Amino acid sequence: MHMGNYLQLLVTKKYHQRLINIFLGEFSGDFDWVNLSIKLN
I need a surface site. Which of 1, 11, 16, 33 has the fewest CB within 10 A? Predict the structure, then answer.
């Protein structure tokens, strides 16, 4: 795997984690966040 692809993957995972955190803050408890995070990973 090229270094650029690896860095892009890390950035994407951080972005997804940030989205999850935002959603948790806005709609805490409304969804199954464990399943959502598994789908995003």
Answer: 1
Answer yes or no: are the C-beta atoms of 20 and 33 closer than 8 Å. yes
Q: Is 20 exposed, middle or buried (0-12, 13-18, 19+ CB in 10 A)?
A: middle
What would the pLDDT profile of 3-38 be if each residue is shown by its tens digit? 788 888 888 888 888 888 877 776 655 566 666 777
In three state form, how does the secondary structure of 1-41 look? CCHHHHHHHHHHHHHHHHHHHHHHHHHCCCCCHHHHHHHHC
